[in-house]
Write a structure and sequence with these properties.
Layout: H1 2-16, H2 21-33, H3 41-57, H4 66-101, H5 105-123, H6 126-137, H7 142-149, H8 153-173
């Protein structure tokens, strides 16, 4: 009796999953061929699954060939992963250049300020840190950050305001500014 109930629960779960095992394997393969690291493949499969569920929730009909659709979405996700990685590399390069430019005596104060901001960023909640880095280090406008994170522009503005207020307080407490 218990086995029958377990089997039925597993069958219901399989029916609820919009991607079958073969489609999930195909998505993983497309992501891997696209250069996404092994550790990020489960997240990629989950994102494809969510996009398919969002499509159904929006009332749009299911794709004729879910497997092909999922492969295209996975390919797009791989490209997005590379774009994000390049953006992160450019950010690191810009910070390295700024750090090298502050090597003289006047740079000592700038380096102290930079370290204080870095420490302050480390103490922010992830959501606030994310919008601060995207806005002030990656130079993305509020609308692009909202699109990138999938949140409303007002939420981005609110998080930025709160984060800047916390950082400003921290800097003034440390008497860096």
């Amino acid at each position: 009796m218990l086995r029958r109930k377990t089997r039925r629960a597993a069958e219901r779960q399989e029916k609820a999953d919009p991607l079958d095992a073969a489609q999930q394997d195909r998505v993983r393969a497309v992501l891997a061929l696209g250069g996404v690291p092994q550790a990020d493949l489960p997240d990629g499969v989950q994102q494809v699954r969510l996009k398919l569920l969002e499509r159904a929730a929006d009332g749009r009909e299911a794709p004729r060939d879910v497997s092909a659709w999922a492969a295209v979405v996975a390919s797009n996700l791989a490209m997005d992963w590379h774009r994000a990685r390049r953006r992160q590399e450019r950010l690191g390069e810009r910070l390295a250049v700024l750090w090298r430019e502050t090597t003289d005596e006047d740079g000592a104060e700038a380096r102290a300020l930079s370290l204080a901001v870095t420490q302050g960023l480390g103490e922010l909640p992830d959501a606030q840190r994310q919008v601060v880095v995207l806005r002030f280090y990656a130079d993305l406008p509020v609308r692009a950050i909202a699109d990138e994170l999938g949140i409303p522009e007002g939420t981005v503005k609110s998080r930025l305001h709160s984060a800047v207020r916390v950082l400003r307080t921290r800097l003034h407490e440390g008497e860096v500014v």
